[in-house]
């Protein structure tokens, strides 16, 4: 059946699109939605007409709207209509895969809009690469493992993937993490794409799951939904992909909406990250040595590989573990910097040799381009490391390899040039965008100079729908006992939010010896949307999580209690340590704002509709109570009882 991509209202040649759009939006919120049983909300209508100005002026707007204002329906309506008007899809960029699921799941916001307005919305998902199975990792692993979860994934891979005679027209999409919900996160990492995979030179690349899914979503006519991480990867790789003769990860957009936009800065830093391990450089340069090149080039390659080995050995010996993080801090020693500088100089020399060798000898052009691209990437990453105060860097170790990660400290210049210089509407949507009503901090960190903004409060009657109890932790086991009592008194129906994976695992170990009359679900045991589905359908269950402070939308009796096991301060890892080092008062400028924002998000998981009700328990230690009691009280929707 052909898709209906026409506007849901008529515009004659003598009429202005935005005038007709305004009339239609008014009809939707004043007449159509109320007739379908939706509540008429002043906050939603106010937001709608604020967004109209952003679309009309092709500007940036910060739309801070509390829980229950129906902000998602508003931005979806504008994004769809404007996409059809411009003939280009809108991009909805979400904080993570959980938020994406809220939009596209059965009964989610897009389906609600379709049903209410009689629309068929062409929406497609552009997921980050780690959400797809990697055949290069899976196939050899399946030949030597006895793990039934992994073997089951291998059995479900379509036959054409392994049949080199199969023609392209017989290929179908496959390999999405969601298709294998039984696989725990820990096992998924063994068979999913990871940053060590060199897709551009992979034999499987034309029949890989991520390639086929990418070909599908690129043709969306209304909306492409992706994560912030994926959007920033698109920004970061756009030019290099063009140079390699590849398409950018995302097509040109008519507009971009950043849902939970307050989290974009970290995604931008992550997207602009340089990740190196010595195996990558060895693999690339070994390929170069196999070409027909001069002897002096071969000698230079040998010197680079030897120095690279020595450098990584120094990094590993000097790195310090960071509690609660897999990131190891690297001291900025003179010896480390001298070796990095020598390595960078030698790589620059090799780039010059590469140009000369490619002119003198017959080197495969594609291979030359891959080597050149990697060496430039390697050199630029080192240049950030060598400049004082521009980079954040750390070491990560796995069973397979050691990786050096380099991230730019500030991203506003890149974003200003590569993103917000476009003359299209940008919408930031969240319940937590401002600091005491001021949006300039977020705007400045993202390189946004001109913007509009507004705030609307939640319409919920929190005083009658919610209670908040505060608790002071004296001893870990007694805290777990009190949490257990809270779960039993509520007969389950609860979400427990932990600050870290380690804290969740401590509780899990303790709770394994307890008798529970309901199911205890833990983030990571299954694919996340499957875990959330189980929690929603089994109303007495308890969900334990460390990532679901935002994005989880479970209305009704399945969630009537949120237990915040500890205040969600940022980790002590190198990224936040760099922020602390550049703050006049790290506690006031970094730690407290992060904690308070995340706390607000966690509290927002409880009341999702006018009918919802429940209780929130917030745990902290004596020192935190003394230091932050007043700040916490300032962000709570109701007073806290002790």
Automatic annotation (TrEMBL):
EC category: hydrolase
Leader peptide range in chain numbering: none
Domain Helicase ATP-binding: start-end pairs: 30-305
Record's keyword annotation contains Disulfide bond: no
Documented EC number(s): 3.6.4.12
This protein's record includes keyword Nucleotide-binding: yes
InterPro entries, sorted: ATP-dep_Helicase_C (IPR006555), DinG/Rad3-like (IPR045028), Helic_SF1/SF2_ATP-bd_DinG/Rad3 (IPR014013), P-loop_NTPase (IPR027417)
GO molecular function: DNA helicase activity; hydrolase activity
Keywords: ATP-binding, Helicase, Hydrolase, Nucleotide-binding
Transmembrane segments: none
Domain of life the protein comes from: Bacteria
Protein family (similarity comment): Belongs to the helicase family. DinG subfamily.
Protein name listed in UniProt: ATP-dependent DNA helicase
Organism of origin: Oceanobacillus longus
